[in-house]
Design goal:
241 residues, alpha/beta, Rossmann fold, three-stranded antiparallel beta sheet, globular, Caspase-related_regulators, Pept_C14_p10, CASP3 protein
Length: 241
Amino acid sequence: MAQPRQSRALVIVNTNFYSSDGEVGLGTRRGAKREAEKLSTVLSRLDYKVKLMHNKTAEEIEDLYRQERCHEHGEYFVSIISSHGEEGIVFGCDSEPVKLTRIFQILSSEKRPLLTKIPKIFFIQACRGTEFDQGVVLECDSGEPEPDCFSGYLSIPPQTVVMFACSPGYGAFLNIAGSMFLQALLKVLEGEERHLALNRLLTRVSWEVAFRCQARGTYEGCKEMPCFVTNLLQEVFPFSA
């Protein structure tokens, strides 16, 4: 009997940056490499065939997604991008931008109709602006407050889910121990909550960041609010054993 096709995951983490003139570009992202390696290990345990790539240029990032069109895919495709960014873009290690919509278009090409039909799930650990979230004080009669999550409109192709580390216009935090967002994702994927339907799992990640995480040091007290956009028409369980 033929073996089922294995779901694939592509993890791209940029930690060191340079500019086109050879000078040092954007700041070094300490802590990003180790958490990306941990996430890759967890995804492998969840039966994903994982490709982990370090310090790729803008052109190389696009090429990695073109290569994915040539592979046989299982039920899901998961991608994690950890880099510097701005609204709608992430930066290659050459400090050149890659539009997220360009990545989505590559995977939605009619040349690879099978890939367009399976759920594609993106986790984007990157800033979306320069504002910092000071948080708000919530008063509740009882129990724990529910997270309030808002995402600006993002054009995505069918069968796609995109979760961002932060809301539009805001910065995403990272330190030597890792990022608020991907550490929360790692915690959920390592626990029993990984069996939840995807929309509930992502809401749980948002809750972890909103209520369990807070910046220290220079940005003491600042918060972060992940958000996601989806056009899936059915419940999926991409991380359930």
